[in-house]
Amino acid sequence: MQASDELSAGQKHGPRLGAGWIAPRRQARTSSRLPVARRFPSPDRDAEQLTIHYAIDDYAIDPVIAEGQLPDAFVRLSDNRHYRFGASGSFGTGQHEFCGFTDGFYMIFSETEYYSPQSSHVLSPDTLQLYVASSGDGEYVAHDGEPVSFEGPGTALIIEPEYQPPADVTLAGVARYIYIVIHRNTLKALFAGGEHELPVDVQDFLNGDLRQTAGRALPLSAAMFRCLDDVHGCPLEGHRRRLFLQSKAIEIICQMFEAFDHSEGFTSPETTRLTARGVLKAQQVLADNLASPPSLEVLARRVGLSRSALCSGFRQILGQSVFDYVHGLRMQQALELLNERDASITQIAYAVGYNRASSFTVAVQRHFGATPSELRRRSALPRS
After folding, report:
1. Helix 238-261 / helix 200-207 crossing angle, nearest 10 deg
2. Within 13 A of 36's CA, how many CA atoms are on the CB side?
3. Largest Cα–Cα distance in the chain?
4. Based on CB atoms within 10 Å of each CB, which residue in 61, 70, 360, 384 is the most buried?
5. CA-based angle 255:226:372, to the nearest 5?
6. How far apart are CA 344 and CA 87, in angstroms?
7. How many helices (H) and strands (E) does the chain have?
8. What is the secondary structure of 108-137 as a DSSP string?
9. Which domains does the chain have, with CATH numbers?
10. In this predicted model, what pLDDT tens digit does every residue of 181-231 receive, in sequence order?
11. Partners of 173 in the β-ladder
């Protein structure tokens, strides 16, 4: 994002993509529901104004210059358009990674603690934006539009045609999120030949028939949750990391369209959000008590869910039972401890919740296809 005194994407980097307002193909739906109230105050008039730009080179950063400008560590990744940096100040503190894939296609993901809600005016001409969060809060409010919630766990899809006034965007809390921006031209090229498979509102956007900003908040599905974890936990570096992130960005776009298509059949977003919150809390409780995890009844009470809601939530969001999740955590921790070589196999067995070394050995062999001793020997072998 750059200051708004620069020209918009269509004006600066290519031909205009429309000739002003075009009447929509469908009549607007009437509704008797009450308007949604804002949960955060409007930004001040002099609040920061940001503009999303089309050209990928607008986001290139010279590492030498960046070291003197960015407040914390700056790391160049695959190239000057893919970097990681920390930021801290009166707003809060956090770590961010920006990856520009091509003109009009960017991803940024972040883990940031905002000390107070941070609001700004954002102009994103002719773009589709996707927000996926496991935690945090905030909202997007288009000019004369209703708020679209950024409250996590949840997702949001925003379609902003050309010539819209800046929207009000607020982020708050301890936010762990992915934010993807894709320009209309880039989206059209990505789905060339398959436009008919897209949601109708997206087809209108691609055809230049979308007249006003459209947005919808949706629950965090199991597939989107896995994408979020895959992106934040990606161990790859260099160009392989860039390609991996691009594949995940495309997967998120496809998953979001699928959710958008079926959103009328979703259960209550608030009910789904409560379940997702409970599952995320349960994950942390289990990680903190791996050697002696609480029973399902106790765990459910601690996270504010019924036992059945907890179990079904784990299967829906994580794709596995609570038991399988704990087993996976134990095996992951066991492998790390075996590689460190500081503790005996018996000590490691106790550390990850096994009362007998023999039971631990059987579990490890079933999971990894090798005994703990064999795994330890392998980790000691020199790498070519």
Report:
1. 120
2. 16
3. 74
4. 360
5. 150
6. 41
7. 13, 11
8. EEEEEEEEEEEEEEEE-TTEEEEEEEEEEE
9. 2-15+37-265 (no CATH), 269-380 (1.10.10.60)
10. 999 999 999 999 998 888 888 988 999 988 889 888 988 888 888 899 999
11. 114
pTM attached to this predicted model: 0.69
Angle at the Cα of 189 (from 104 to 9), degrees rounded to 5? 25
Only one residue has tokens 């789904």, namely 272
User: Could you please report the per-residue DSSP string of 163-211?
Assistant: TPPPEEEEEEEEEEEEEEEEEHHHHHHHTTT-GGGS-HHHHHHHHT---
The tens digit of pLDDT for each residue in 112-157 reads 999 999 999 999 999 999 999 999 999 999 988 889 999 989 999 9
Distance CA 37, CA 162 (A): 25
278-305 confidence digits (pLDDT tens): 888 898 899 899 889 999 999 999 998 8
pLDDT confidence of 9, banded at 50, 70, 90? very low
210-216-219 Cα angle (round to 5): 150
For residue 3, pLDDT beyond 70 = no
Q: Residue 131: beta bridge partners?
A: 156, 179
